Amino acid sequence: MAYDGVTLYHLINEFKPLLIGGRIRKIYQPEIDEIRLLVNLGNQKKHLLLSANASNPRVYMTEKIKENPSAAPSFCMVLRKYLLNGTIIDIAQHETDRIMELSVTAKNDFNEIVVRKLLVEIMGRNSNIILVDESMKILDSLKKVGSTSSRYRQILPGRDYVYPPENSRLSFLNLDANHLNELLSDYKDSSVEKVFVQALLGISPNISREIAFRSGIDPQTSVSGLSKKQKQFLCEAFTQVINEIRQKSEPVIIYLGRKMVDFSTIDLHYLRSDHRFEAYPSISEMLEAYYFMRDKALRFKTRAANLRQQLDILVRKNIKKLDNLQQDVDASHKNEKFKLYGDLITANIYAIEKGQEIATLVNYYDPDCQTIDIPLKVNRTPAQNAQHYYKKYNKSKTALKHLASYVLETEEKIYYLESLVNSLDQSTELAELDEIRHEFLHSEFNKKAISKEDKQKQLPSKPLHYISSEGFHIFVGKNNYQNDFISTKMGKNEDCWLHVKDAPGSHVLIVAGGRFITEKTLLEAGNLAAWFSKSRGSSNVPVDYLEFKYLKKPSKAKPGMVIFTNQNTMYVTPTQDGVESIEVITDTN
């Protein structure tokens, strides 16, 4: 959900009892686009975060403290000059737009009490934090906007502050049924979903879809196609949603399966059927959790991108090498004919004369005894020609032996590299990413010097921990270090170990715990093994399973590499629903 006017409306209502009357004791600027205010109210200390980040502009109270730069940026110094030790007397929202106005009383140069406002505009890439005086004249801003960027609205010290253009949009709090009917007439060419977004300040597509859902109308329906009855339903649904917004907030983070997809401060009925809602006691706590997880995912993606690129290059390089080796193997197999040439020349040695260019001989090894033309060197005797072909045959046979070992070695390299790529696909935590990077840096594929920091041993991350429908504990490795831990440290002889057949994937362990492992639990674990593998998108994926006692890790084997015997094979078609239906213990991640 966009950080819309509804979210800000609820947040300001949450702020008022906690911040109004508080004194601003400290002002920091830990990031180029982020301001933090420490506000004291009685014995309470609140950290207010104001961010004009182009991707994630936001306002909320935070518990997470960031390190501050040794020298404060100029805008931070201006805020300290005008707001430090000031008292917050009001927090308001401009109309229902995404603009928060923080009114602060402080003394001016003449020791007079004056009111200044800190305006936070949450407008995507145009977000800004602006300080104005009592006459709404700009004192300074986080981002300067000159005439070259905007002819309508310059954000520069000394200029009068002008609110962002509203484009004739109205506050959603000041709209009754009559006005709404007029609005529908004015926007008859729009869809039901778009009309509220286009006509009202602070309404996001999520809220608009919720209104349409409660009215029983498809949000893509054109307003011009609505019947009088449908318009009535739409007006009733709009009134119901707005009344709920006025009365209370319900801060939740929304998940699709286990993936965080959105947040909301109202109950979105249209998402109830296939989404999961995680409730929070306050909007600030909800926003902090949401943006923390979102920032962590972004940092993970950024840090994983470089390693993935290196691995992809190495995989392609070794696949090409394997292809060339296979061509050499095919060529060596074709050289089997040289032995035949030698044998036929030797069998007919007295029928061939020196100086012949071609010997046409009967192929005794052919059931039909057809003749074959054998090229000869004119300056060699028949015996020398036979020896020449025997040498070529022996040379190709020797090469074939070496090629077989090179092919096997290259296949093992590809398998190992693809196991690292698969680990990247399964990992979600920075600690897991650090383990994969540490493993790669200490592998034969890294040609660069290892820094002192990278030589340090990584703190181990934990495998995924599931509980089967019948109460068995199932562990799933998300990288080779976790796989090693599962396959060498965790299991007991009677436990069951699983792995997708002939493809990189996670090691999976079912802990028997003195019980007989049922077929149902085995299938659930097989679904996990197939899902957390390179074969995730396939059907009828073969999964090997065996008792843990038949598993062994060879000496000096790479991380995650094991050998086993006495396995059986099941076939499963992995599905996301099947994986998400298994209970996961999140505190082990």
From TrEMBL:
Keywords tagged on the record: Protein biosynthesis, RNA-binding, rRNA-binding, tRNA-binding
Domain of life: Bacteria
First and last residue of the signal peptide: none
Pfam families given in the database record: NFACT-R_1 (PF05670), NFACT_N (PF05833)
Main function: Key component of the ribosome quality control system (RQC), a ribosome-associated complex that mediates the extraction of incompletely synthesized nascent chains from stalled ribosomes and their subsequent degradation. RqcH recruits Ala-charged tRNA, and with RqcP directs the elongation of stalled nascent chains on 50S ribosomal subunits, leading to non-templated C-terminal alanine extensions (Ala tail). The Ala tail promotes nascent chain degradation. May add between 1 and at least 8 Ala residues. Binds to stalled 50S ribosomal subunits.
Assembly: Associates with stalled 50S ribosomal subunits. Binds to RqcP.
The protein's name in its UniProt record: Rqc2 homolog RqcH
